[in-house]
Amino acid sequence: MNLKITTLAERPELTGAMWAMPDTWAEFVQYDLVAWSHMVRIAVEWPEYVLIATDDAGRVVARAFSVPFALRAEGRGELPDGGWDQVVLWAFSDLKRGRETDTVSAVEITVAPDAQGRGLSGRMLAALRENARGRGYGEVVAPVRPNAKHLEPATPVEEYAWRTRDDGLPHDPWLRTHVRAGGVVEKVAPVSMTVSGTTAQWRDWTGLPFDTEGLVEVPGALVPVHCAPARGYAVYVEPNVWVRHVL
């Protein structure tokens, strides 16, 4: 597939098509409150860090979001256990305070369903790395959502993240793409995203009954959801895996 990859700053007229692009995210994921309240703002505040890929027909087939932040600011220094949520909050805090940034974090790389299986995610990752390099940054970090972890939600993520194949590359396909691109798996972010809702909401999101106390395995979830039907709520705490790309 011939791709044209540009920043949203270069092609703002594609904003609507970018958001309208179909994806395969499970419905419940969008109800992480940090994502709900901040994702659209990333495109507004940092369009130069948002990449869009179009095919020969001009159709948007992939997008990649990233944010600049100050990893080495006082009180930080290490990639946070809070993963995706924390790095997005740090980025907006740094923007508000006018703090000088030193690192770029990937936030999302999404490929349209009918364009998957053609290596587009790897090309978008390479473009995201190059975009950060071109803006003077020395590294990109990514709170990676391992894309095959949902097939074994009961497996501890600490075990899954470090599992490798015979060739030494990660077992997980998306982690493997990052490592092949030059990234290094650094640590687990155990509380990277949190989705809480009433049991009625979870029934709407998943079609499951959510009437049993304890852990519920949900299609698309990396780990089980904690269900408390007597109290009327359920909570999903998603772990991600930090990968560091030195440019």
From TrEMBL:
<protein>
    <submittedName>
        <fullName>N-acetyltransferase</fullName>
    </submittedName>
</protein>
<dbReference type="GO" id="GO:0016740">
    <property type="term" value="F:transferase activity"/>
</dbReference>
<dbReference type="InterPro" id="IPR016181">
    <property type="entry name" value="Acyl_CoA_acyltransferase"/>
</dbReference>
<keyword id="KW-0808">Transferase</keyword>
